[in-house]
Amino acid sequence: MGEVAAPAKVLIANRGEIACRVSRAVKELGLTPVIIYTEADALSLHVLTAEHKVCLGSNKRAYTDIALVVNICQEQGVAAVHPGYGFLSENVEFATAVQEAGIQFLGPDPATFRMFSLKHTARAVAEAADVPVLPGSNLLTSADEAGRLADDIGYPVLLKATGGGGGIGIYICRSHTEVVDMFDVASRQGQANFGDSGVFLEKYVESARHIEVQIFGDGKGTVVHLGERECSIQRRHQKIVEETPSPFSNTEFREAITAAAVRLGRHAKYRSAGTIEFLVDNDTGKFYFLEVNTRLQVEHGITEYVSRQDLVQWMLQLQVPGLTPPDLEAYTFHNRGAAIECRINAENPSSNYSPSSGTLGEVEWPEMEGVRVDTWVETGSVVTPHYDSLLAKLMVFAPEGRAAAIKKMQAALAATKLKGIPSNIELCKEILASEKFGGGVTTTSFLVDFPFHPHAVEVTAAGMNTTVQDWPGRVRYWNVGVPPSGPMDARAFRFANALVGNGSDAAGLEYAIVGPTLKFHAPAAVALAGAEFSAHLDGKDIPCWTSVAVSPGSTLTVGSAKGSGGARGYL
Fold first, then answer.
1. From residue 167, how far is each of 159, 220, 285, 363 by CA, in Å?
2. What is the pLDDT averaged over residues 365-394?
3. Strand positions, DSSP E, 5-128
4. What gap in Å lies between CA 277 and CA 36, rounded to an integer?
5. I need a labelling partner for 565 at 20 to 30 A (CA). Which of 4, 173, 399, 475 fits?
6. For the chain, what percent of residues have pLDDT higher than 70?
């Protein structure tokens, strides 16, 4: 008997949750995933669950080392490479090198990358495909020219670096002077971040929505759409909550915007999964081409929910030898409900959303019908500062529609536990609970005046020997070498809890000799007990043994112990 051919190998040129997601699809099709990782990622879930894995070494940027990754592909004998998103997913040199090595690059052709990588050329392609674009300019040669053309277009305008993304090199200008002043800034940022100093102008829409259309093509001119997604709720041009269908859409609008996306895809003979992004004027309902994401989107999962199609499997089936490509000629999209995604990020809302890192002491994701979690973390995972802050994508689906999906997402967020480092879960909860979101008023300015105060206390000075305690604390573990814990003065500790309405077993702070300095980001009630310490709230004395109301933004400073009544206090 002849030997049975081994399953084709697919190298996943990425990390984190998308590496886990693609690996799952690869296995479901009977193929063999090959994982690459840096030493910093050695204990990440996508590595721990992999049978075939190759270490890239200690260089934390090795995921973008084209020569190294292609060499591994050849050594491993892979049939295809899935780039995920980010890193090398839209890199024309990488796609070219993979294909020249005789390996399938699961994504668009390199020529497509060139077509859409620069915003000004992408505009020209969209115009050629009869897709609406915002009034704007070609590449500009000087600040003076930018000012003159901005006067003609009408203010406000966007000054945009042609290679820009993620808000880098993009400025809202409301006057001739601002355009002239910011021209060189946008140009320098474009050159520094994207290797292209080109800058152009576009009309700025004050009340706008970000709505995108998922497309899929065979590279020969057949292109289908899988509905639209609303991605307007963003912070610093980074999406936080996405949903499909858009609450703005009606039948006429949906038919028009999806037809435009398909038209552009066919014009470009688009291959694989891609997303056409549009800016929608919330007042007039007109939509304008924004850009093409020539890769799998982070939020593809909610489209999979409502379409009941697996986009990653489609990518594999289209190009991996031996698999049957999806029958795009016979496919017509039918929406089957509503889906919402929240991006769960490791970031600290009380510190201007700076990235957070550390060990996750407890991770628990909801297990409910119609809830999907794409993640790379579990209890004990170490989140490093070296990579993107995305920890998980929490997705829900409700066949009954948007209202039911909102309720399901609220339940899913409530059931999520993520302890050990700050995250944006509380922000997601408040967005979903807001009247604006419930009413579908989700423009790109949604978060500008959103009244969010994280329920957090920022430690600006730790004091001397400040610890978190609870009552009765940790007891009866001497037999395994763990000493008892808990407050030294349990009566004072419980009294302080009672003063602010807490249960006697609620956690609190114990400090000795010198207390901490704390900044409050949400309303609170505090009480000090135990030994008497000097204490000031925004510079004003506060007494011990009484409840004190604290406003958001206030700072509590607990000084040193007074007199001879002890040296240990409680908050």
1. 11, 33, 24, 32
2. 96
3. 9-12, 32-37, 53-55, 80-82, 104-105
4. 31
5. 475
6. 99
| CA–CA gap between residue 318 and residue 312 (Å, rounded) | 10
* Residue-wise pLDDT tens digits, 45-102: 999 999 999 999 999 999 999 999 999 999 999 999 999 999 999 999 999 999 999 9
Check residue 253 and give its pLDDT. Answer: 97
Average pLDDT over residues 339-357: 94
Nearest to 301 by CA among 87, 88, 91, 17: 17
Assigned token pair, 221 = 């001119």
Q: Is 63 helix (H, G, I), strand (E, B) or coil?
A: helix
Label residue 195 exposed, middle or buried (CB < 10 Å: 0-12, 13-18, 19+): exposed
User: Buried b / exposed e across 331-353, counting CB within 10 Å, b at 16+?
Assistant: bebebebbbbbbbbbbbbbbeeb
Q: Which stretch of DSSP H or E encloses residue 379? A: none
236-286 pLDDT tens trace: 889 999 999 999 999 999 999 999 999 999 999 999 999 999 999 999 999
Residue 255 corresponds to which tokens in the numbers above?
A: 């038919």
Is residue 1's pLDDT more than 50? no
Is residue 518 within 8 Å of 485, Cβ to Cβ? no
Q: Cβ distance 253 to 211 under 8 Å?
A: no
- Write the DSSP assignment of 448-462 as a string of letters: TT-----S-EEEEE-
Q: How confident is the model at residue 3 (pLDDT cuts 50, 70, 90)?
A: low
Intra-chain end-to-end CA distance of the chain, in Å: 77
pTM higher than 0.85, yes or no? yes
Q: Which spans in 340-474 are helix H?
A: 402-414, 425-433, 435-438
DSSP, collapsed to helix, strand or coil, labels residue 205 as coil
- In a 3-state reduction of DSSP, which class is residue 229? strand
